[in-house]
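Lecture 7 notes: from sequence to structure.

We start with a single chain of 264 residues. Read the sequence below before looking at the structure.
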Amino acid sequence: MFNSQNYHVIPVKLLTLILFATHACLFSQIGVGAKAPTDAQILFDGSKESLGKNWTYWEGPRLAEKLPIKWEIVQDPLETGTAVNTNDPAAANGLYGAADIVTKEKFEDFRLHVEFLIENEGGNSGVYLQNRYEIQILDGDSTTHGMAAVINEKAASYKPYKGLKKWNSYDIIFRAARFDDADNLLENALVTIYFNGEKVHSNVSIKKVWGGPNSGLDGGNNDGLGITNNPGGIKLQAEGHDVLFKNIWIRELDLKEHNTDIKI
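Now the structure, written as tokens:
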């Protein structure tokens, strides 16, 4: 039986606020400023200590730098706090692989959050998954070699890009390649990507490592098609441009199914 004494009407304005807060909570871990979940690992918090603790130079065939990392910690141009600038002198004129940095820890399946800011036109860098597969950062380019592309394989919408001197974000769900007991490739790596909160890739299969041996792990194996059964770190690329990074964190996953288009 209905009892009016136990029934409370929620004002429309209050209900709207509740719904808005619920929506914000659901999506608070996507996009610029996303906070790391409690079970995530902070890879870079803007500090020199974080950079030295979690990162090192990638020891590829073109490495031209020595530790400590020469990437400069700079003041965040838009907010309080600090960021790191990829413009290592050794990588001038686009010499990728000469001063790229990679996490000391290696990963398989994961959910990754990265924020970046490009200072100048044509600014170029990249986020490498397992130090193999590049998700491009390139101002002014919307091709398969351009902004947010799974490089040379799948272009992304350029619309989410906020432009120069603005913070942008990638939220990436990655499933490593799968192999049989004899280390023969069974399934390619798979990725779903949100660019500034907008889904731009869904379950994209990544076929190879592009750019040769100076690009990343297995780049020199069978023209990048010789993917091996080894985990790799998260790598950030130096190409002689003023591209800044901050708020980088990762949450390890165990994706049994061949699917990365999952709730995050």
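The chain has two helices and 15 strands. Keep this in mind for problem set 3.
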